[in-house]
From TrEMBL:
This is FtsX-like permease family protein. Keywords: Cell membrane, Membrane, Transmembrane, Transmembrane helix. The lineage of its organism: Archaea, Methanobacteriati, Methanobacteriota, Stenosarchaea group, Methanomicrobia. The keyword Cell membrane applies. GO terms for biological process: lipoprotein localization to outer membrane. It comes from Methanospirillum hungatei.
């Protein structure tokens, strides 16, 4: 058995050395491009998913979110709960949010949107919205009569450029009217417009906790959610368990648990596209290698006849051609790996600009190994059948060429 493999390897390397170098290099280059294609799209998808995850943590949910338990609408005594959560090991800071239904009006534009409420000092320590100001300034604790709006809420004067209903291109310093569901109407000056490129976050508006207490006419001590930022390097699931062990009775979820439902359909769609691309790439690889090996075996038909005439077993001849495709496949995959690493380095410096953010390539080692194995299997399949067909011809037919 070992002797057969040695003979097959000897024949494979000998045939490769004697074959056209240009043809062999071209085949290796095609395999490298096929491998690159198999990895590239999945790495772009991986980068997009990583971007969505990062945006969710930085701008929308933070690391952990506390929601009212069961069918309750609000978390009561939320300021006391925030103070309690801030003392739990692993928690960096917590910020309570409240929401109140309203309609926003600017000239002829009117949109219905809940107004979110937070303590700006707490929010700065939990999310990074304050770092993404497109224009103007972030809110402060003392702000009254001022509002912070997302880029999609501000919109454009040309409505065809808007993703959602908007206020028609308002700017910082403009005044808008907010009609709350409790019947109170307030005129607000736009203090700032933020742009995180997250669809959920950029279609939100915020006022300060002090402002909403003026609107309600009484001190507010309940919230719809509490965002929790964990200490760097800590695992959210462990901090969640610690929080529950400290007697937090509300519904506590990590960002992955909360966001899973938000992105599952998008990720599933991405995976379908990726699987189709992977299948097409493998078919291309099989067809290309099949054609190359078929041409090579036909070219070496007479040589195969001679090998059979001197007593070389058919299986050894077939193995030698399979080994050729394996050698070509391995070299192509190594070159493809180098191309992928170069692309990762390039796009880390110059990320791809999508409407929802800048995407760098994100490659999981498992996907790279899986793609390499699939490509090698494709190489074996492509090399086996042409070699088997020629090797099984009788000696005289093969020697006639």
């Amino acid at each position: 058995m070992l002797t057969d493999v040695k003979i097959s390897f000897f024949l494979a390397t000998r045939i490769l050395k004697r074959s056209s170098k240009a043809g062999t290099l071209l085949t290796i280059f095609i395999i490298a491009l096929v491998f690159t294609n198999m990895i590239f799209l999945s790495s772009v998808i991986g980068g997009s998913i990583e971007l969505m995850n990062q945006q969710t943590v930085d701008y929308y949910i933070s690391n952990i979110i506390i929601k009212p338990k069961d069918d309750n609408r609000f978390i009561d005594n939320s300021l006391g709960l925030v103070s309690k959560v801030n003392r739990i090991p692993g928690v960096y800071h917590a910020s309570a949010r409240y929401e109140m239904g309203a309609s926003l009006v600017h000239k002829s534009n009117e949109i219905a949107l809940p107004v979110s409420v937070f303590n700006p000092d707490d929010e700065r320590m939990v999310t990074k919205i304050h770092e993404m100001m497109k224009e103007g300034q972030f809110l402060t604790r003392e702000d009254r009569g001022q509002i912070l709006i997302g880029n999609y809420v501000a919109g454009n004067k040309d409505e065809s450029k808007d993703f959602f209903e908007s206020l028609g291109g308002v700017k910082t310093g403009d005044s808008i009217k907010v009609n709350y569901v409790n019947g109170v109407s307030r005129d607000y000056r736009i203090k700032g417009i933020f742009q995180t490129k997250s669809y959920q976050t950029d279609y939100m508006v915020f006022v300060s906790w002090n402002e909403i207490e003026d609107v309600l006419g009484y001190p507010l001590d309940k919230s719809v959610e509490i965002l929790v930022k964990t200490e760097p390097g800590t695992r959210e699931d462990r901090v969640k368990k610690t929080m529950m062990s400290f007697g937090i009775k509300e519904d506590v979820k990590t960002w992955k648990e909360q966001a899973g439902g938000l992105f599952d359909e998008s990720i599933e769609s991405f995976q379908i596209i990726n699987n189709i691309t992977l299948l097409v790439s493998l078919i291309i690889a099989i067809v290309v290698l099949f054609i190359v090996i078929m041409i090579k075996t036909l070219h070496n038909r007479r040589e195969i006849g001679v090998l059979k005439a001197i007593g070389i077993d058919e299986d050894i001849i077939i193995q030698s051609y399979v080994l050729q495709t394996l050698i070509i496949g391995i070299i192509g995959i190594v070159i493809g790996f180098c191309i992928i690493q170069t692309l990762i380095l390039y796009f880390s410096v110059y990320p791809i600009e999508f409407p929802d953010g800048n995407v760098s390539l994100y490659v999981e080692s498992g996907i790279m190994i899986e793609s390499a194995i699939l490509l090698l299997i494709a190489s074996v399949i492509a090399g086996y059948f042409p070699a088997m067909r020629i090797a099984k011809e009788d000696i005289l037919t093969a020697m006639r060429g």
